[in-house]
């Protein structure tokens, strides 16, 4: 159910929803910006401009009015914070989708805000909780968990085909063939459309898929081989270089964080 708001609604409204593994929200929009925190499970999100992965204990910002689709990977407990335009601006949130870290303080503020009854008269405590919640959202560091999509129709179709079955084994020549372009033309248009080389984009997409699969319980070796890496050690090296930790440590930090 897509929530609705009016002029009397608080500047930030927090809701909790539980979704079984495999739930898909078809393309939709919200009138307010959505700060979606995955307390458990992981999710993948798609827009016309890119795709994102949200591991457990992280959050994604979706600006109001942006059409998006969400796929749940594992059983997901999600806390959504819907911010009006003034609150989003105060938090410094941009007019593009972003994945963020979530601090222990922010998790506790989400819990406190969840208990606020929006039908009652606002109190000093409610005001303080929401003010600090918005400020803490604005202090969260952004994570490199997205891959852009080109707008050019032939490239977009080829990229969608790749996203349906991502693997390091797909070559530049194959992508050019899928796009009905020469290698040189594809290389030029792909960089113009994404700001990345195909090789860098392919690796980023595979890392996003790996993060989602690992969050769902797949083993490192299984993920590495399924996504076309030469070995689990090669996959671990790429993962660490791009995300700052080995896959095992990255997931251990998620599991160690307090959960609702």
Q: Helix- and strand-based class?
A: alpha+beta
- Whole-number count of domains: 2
Tell me the fraction of residues in β-strands, as a range.
15-25%
**Which CATH-level-2 architecture of the largest domain?**
Sandwich
| Structural shape | globular
Distance between the termini: 22 Å
Rg: 19 Å
Bin the helical content.
40-55%
Total DSSP E strands? 9
**Residue-averaged pLDDT:** 91
H/E series: EEEEEEHEHHEEHHHHHHH
Largest sheet: 9 strands, antiparallel
CATH class bucket of the largest domain: Mainly Beta
Uncertain regions spanning at least 5 consecutive residues: none
Q: Total number of helical segments? A: 10
Query: Per CATH, what is the topology of the largest domain?
Result: Jelly Rolls
Question: Mind explaining what this structure looks like?
Answer:
- The protein is of the alpha+beta class and 260 residues long.
- The chain folds into two domains: 12-143, Jelly Rolls (Sandwich), CATH 2.60.120; 149-256, Arc Repressor Mutant, subunit A, CATH 1.10.10.
- It is built from ten helices and nine strands.
- It has helices at residues 85-90, 104-114, 124-138, 153-164, 172-178, 183-194, 198-215, 220-226, 232-243, 247-256; strands at residues 12-19, 24-28, 33-47, 50-54, 59-62, 68-83, 98-100, 142-143, 146-148.
- Strands 1, 2, 3, 4, 5, 6, 7, 8 and 9 form a nine-stranded antiparallel sheet that branches.
- Strand 3 and strand 4 form a beta hairpin.
- Helix 5 packs across helix 6 (183-194).
- The chain is globular.
- The model has no long low-confidence stretch (mean pLDDT 91).
